[in-house]
Design a protein that fits this description.
The protein is of the alpha/beta class. The chain contains nine helices and five strands. A five-stranded parallel β-sheet has the order 3-2-1-4-5, with helices on both faces. The two termini are 24 Å apart.
Length: 291
């Protein structure tokens, strides 16, 4: 969950508390209904899970029966609570929860559209091509470009390809920096941590191979961390000592019609990093990808 998401949830809880004026009876109704909504959804998710893995688990029927019974019981209690407590605050719960669910679907729809925009960026160049038109002759002895990427995607490719086009004949060596985000989804044990490390390394290595296919020399540096900004700052400081003439580059989606909605839902890590390196006197160039 992003920091903005946590703030949004905390703000929603505060609004509900103020709207209820601290009335314990109403808050208990709100809590009870939402608890059983959560129980019902979790049981429904487990039923769906056991049905999907039925070919790989011989005991799926027993497990499906247990979670199916749990789904029936929690759904019955939820329906009863909504019916009995509807005029005692139940309708408020259904309205607020429904609005949050609607907002979640709206967020998912927006991210789906943003993903399509990224795929359109990927269509501008094929990673399997041995050469890309418009880059010019690679520089054998040039400055080093430290490129910040987040997965092998259209934004990263757009950033890399934009450097020799914006600064022709300047950069001959590229170092791709990627930090794997360590969050609740990946912090599930040593195996998951190693998997994240391997995926991050493999993703950055694809950029190295792609740059080498264009005739440049390239390398990569990867880490995993829960604090992307601080980790990138540390890795970049180390690389700057190895390559004093280096310039940092980062890509940023530039929406044609920017709104408060887009500013909330998309992180602006590159701007935070630009401010940090600006104070240190390190050149940092943002390559916009207009979508």
């Amino acid at each position: 969950m992003t920091q903005n998401g946590i703030l949004l949830m905390g703000g929603s809880a505060l609004v509900v508390m103020l709207a209820a004026r601290g009335a314990v009876g109403l808050l208990v109704v709100l809590y009870s209904i939402n608890v059983f909504i959560t129980f019902s959804l979790s049981q429904l998710g487990m039923v769906r899970h056991w049905w999907r893995v039925r070919a790989a688990d011989d005991t799926w029927k027993q497990k499906l029966a247990v979670n199916g019974l749990g789904l029936v019981m929690t759904s019955f209690i939820l329906f009863s609570l909504c019916l009995v407590k509807f005029h005692e605050g139940g309708w408020i719960t259904l309205f607020v929860t429904g609005a949050l669910i609607g907002g979640a679907f709206a967020v998912k729809r927006h991210y789906g559209r943003a993903l399509l925009d990224l795929k359109r960026l990927e269509e501008l160049v094929s990673p399997n091509d041995n050469g890309v038109q418009g880059l010019g002759r690679p520089v054998t002895k040039g400055r080093t470009a430290i490129v910040l990427v987040n997965g092998f995607n259209g934004l990263g490719l757009h950033t890399f390809l934009g450097i020799p086009r914006i600064f022709p004949g300047t950069f001959g060596h590229f170092v791709f920096v990627q930090v794997g985000l360590l969050d609740a989804g990946s912090f599930k044990g040593a195996n998951e941590l190693e998997r994240l490390r391997a995926e991050t390394r493999a993703s950055a290595q694809r950029y190295v191979q792609f740059a080498q296919h264009q005739g440049f020399t390239a390398a990569c540096a990867t880490e995993v961390s829960h604090d992307v900004v601080a980790t990138i700052e540390g890795v970049s400081d180390h690389l700057m000592k190895q390559h004093p003439d280096a310039v940092l580059f980062g890509g940023q989606l530039a929406f044609t019609h920017e709104t408060v909605w887009t500013r909330w839902l998309h992180n602006y890590v590159v701007f935070a990093l630009q401010r940090i390196f600006c104070r240190q006197g390190v050149p940092f160039v943002i390559v916009p990808a207009r979508v």
